[in-house]
Design brief:
This protein is an all-alpha fold. It contains nine helices and two strands; from the N terminus they run ααααααααββα. α4 runs antiparallel to α5.
Length: about 210
């Protein structure tokens, strides 16, 4: 099994996804055993990731269930399951899975924290979203920011130090994604009526 996993990983590096998938499907047919549990789990997760990228969520979901059957604390399996639920707009289920990934990851992954907070927001659990935002923001302190090249930034309001990026999600860490979610929570609850989160900045002052 380790040799097959190594071959699949090499094919992924070479961007030969079909060949990698074939090797991983061979591993998926093998019965689970404790001696090779780690390699088995990594193989299932990698295969699930390939299926997710192809939009085959049902097949990926079955693999993730197998991972969780043998390892109830597999953070990545919960994270992938949350992603699938989010894509299907089942935000409550997505939040539940991201919550487990956040829990079993000891609340140390700011990316999972962001996803959890976002789905709390979509599920209208504003207090929980704010709580996770504060924890994720604390984790991001001192992190090296992504480059801001070719990114348009708009202040949330006049004189505000919080900005919204209009390009890609990967730039959100530099412009305060946590603060953005916090503001969106207040907007959704009707406390900040002046701000359009995805439009240009408001002309009103805070």
């Amino acid at each position: 099994m380790p040799a097959l996993l190594g071959m699949a990983a090499a094919y992924m590096i070479l961007k030969q996804t079909p060949r990698a998938r074939n090797q991983l499907k061979r591993i998926a047919k093998i019965n689970w055993n404790p001696a090779e549990a780690e390699e088995f789990e990594k193989s299932l997760l990698l295969l699930a990731d390939i299926y997710i990228q192809s939009g085959k969520y049902d097949m990926a979901g079955e693999l993730l269930k197998r991972c969780l059957r043998h390892n109830k604390s597999c953070c990545k399996a919960y994270e992938y399951t949350g992603y699938i639920m989010e894509k299907e707009q089942a935000y409550k289920d997505a939040a539940s899975n991201y919550e487990m990934a956040w829990k079993y990851g000891n609340q140390t992954n700011p990316t999972v924290g962001y996803k959890l907070a976002f789905n709390y927001l979509k599920a209208k659990r504003y207090v929980d979203a704010i709580d996770v935002c504060h924890k994720a923001k604390h984790l991001l302190q001192g992190k090296k920011p992504f480059p801001r090249k070719n990114v348009k930034l708009f202040p949330l309001c006049e004189g505000s130090g919080t900005f919204v990026a209009t390009k890609s999600l990967k730039f959100y860490r530099t412009v305060g994604v946590v603060e953005i979610i916090l503001v969106l929570c207040f907007i959704s609850s009707g406390d900040v009526p002046w701000f359009n989160p995805f439009g240009k900045r408001s002309i009103q002052k805070c």
